[in-house]
Amino acid sequence: MSSINYNKKKLALVDCNSFYVSCERLFNPKIQNKPVVVLSNNDGCVISRSNEAKALGIRMGEPYFKVKELIKRNNVHIFSSNYALYGDLSRRVMKVLKTFSTNVEIYSIDEAFIDLSFLKEEDVENYGKEIRKKVLKWTGIPTSVGISTTKTLSKVANHIAKKERTGVMYLNKNIDERLKKFPIQDVWGVGRQLSKLYVKNGIENAYQLKSVSNTWVKKSTNVLGSRTAMELRGITCIGLELHEEKRKNCCVSRSFGKRITDLQKLEEAVSTYCLNAAEKIRGDDQICRGLTVFIRTSPFNKNKKYYSNSQTAELPIATNNSIELVKYARKILKGMYKPGYHYQKAGIILSKLKDADKNEVNLLTPLMDDRSKTLMKAIDHTNNKYGRHAITIASAGIHKGWKMRREHSSKIDTASFNYLPKVSAS
Questions:
Q1: For residue 141, what are the domain limits?
Q2: Which residue pairs from 2-5 have beta carbons closer than 8 angstroms and sit at least 24 positions apart in sequence?
Q3: Which of 82, 142, 196, 385 allows an S-S link to 17, with CB 3.0 to 4.6 Å?
Q4: Of 191, 371, 339, which Cα lies nearest the Cα of 266?
Q5: Interatomic CA distance for residues 200 and 216, integer angstroms
Q6: Are 188 and 331 members of one domain?
Q7: What would the pLDDT profile of 267-294 be if each residue is shown by its tens digit?
Q8: Residues 6+ apart with CB under 8 A from 199
């Protein structure tokens, strides 16, 4: 194979270290250097672990009930997921990253690709260190930075930076030696099934995948597999996605903390989810024309009858008005609710989304639009300032006993004055 010039482009992958754990630690310094785990919805599975928790053998995705004794025995600190907190801190991190380059792709809640091609070769590593330093100083979140010529190689570099705890890894020298030690299952884009296929054919590390015939990769896998191999050779096949596409639909659903049997509590849940979904599409300046409500009982409970249903309504006028959407959602719910069932989950889907300025017009639209926008703007502003659901509607309920189990919640809310840390003079 001919030698590849790896110095054509410079892409950095910035990844927040154990992001959910880091967010909890930010407001609770006492758990620094202690084993910490964050659990999924309804405290079901482990979805984030500190290095100390990993060392105890707690695996990602492990059901909480399976590791409960291990956690108790080792005094592991447990937290229920707090997505409002994580989302807020993620936005702060991404805002800092955008000060380092005009070309930034927000890849996930805790990862972003940054184009650093404007840098001189000798400045790259120090620039990566500056990124880490500034993000930590301005947000309190620790990161790892992997830099190379393609997204896939940057992922490799980031993985190495985390494993070796160097913080920054610029993969521009001895690349093949690094790839020879990089397990095939850890390569970005290679899932569990694909890694089994590769291992079966003698491809056990990233270097072997890079070196294999492109014809074989295409024939044995697909176009995505071929792109991965090409990227490992330093050839850019996966470009930066700089413009976030607006969502085509918006779904908000949750499993209940305890089963629901009566219609009123179901209405509270559906109304609450509808309010959340409406708030999200208003944030993107969108309106919807379709609204779906779905409910179901547990498919795993063999002692109870299973029931699942969903219905969709076409709205006469596209809207993002919470009050209007809740009215339609409750009407749909009443039409498919059946008494005698123990409901486990409900959800809302807002579909047929489009930009708010593309709304169809009729004689009543201008008057309705102005009033609706003013009201929704006031509600959103108040809720942003004083905490979500500071202003809500009666049908969403007050006590909400059906809410997700969050027995280990830190109750931190960066949008609420009530949760500001208190400093005591004593």
A1: 11-170
A2: 4/233, 4/234, 4/235, 5/234
A3: 142
A4: 339
A5: 14
A6: no
A7: 999 999 999 999 999 988 999 999 999 9
A8: 184
